[in-house]
Amino acid sequence: MLGVRKQDPEFVAFTPKTAEEAVDRFVRCKRRGLKAYLVPECLIACAHGLPPSELEKFESWIINPCDDFSNVSLVEQKSIRESNDAIFAENARRVEDKMQVDELPPLPREQEDEKMCDTTPESLPDTATLSIQ
After folding, report:
1. 15, 84, 96, 108 — which has fewest CB within 10 A?
2. Is residue 30 situated within a structural domain?
3. How many domains does the chain have?
């Protein structure tokens, strides 16, 4: 009976068992007007019943739906990482050298905050001179 219901392109009330069914369910949800902010929840719901091998296929489709890079030989790029590591090490050494200096950084001078009320007795008005108008 599920096969009959799947003939309807609007039907999404099924749990996918393969990566192909998960992709199919996601596409059906998009055709029904899936809002952009609900895409992550929809992908999670589509992947809910998948076994690990099918989940890997579905994840690779999510990352790149147009191409399959499983047979592509990649060239490892080390020069950028090594350059970034060298810059980080130089900056870390420079900061640590500054931290080892014996002098303390200058402290800010104390300033009175104008918003703080002064509650010393000489700053309070004399109650005898206050009059209610």
Report:
1. 108
2. yes
3. 1
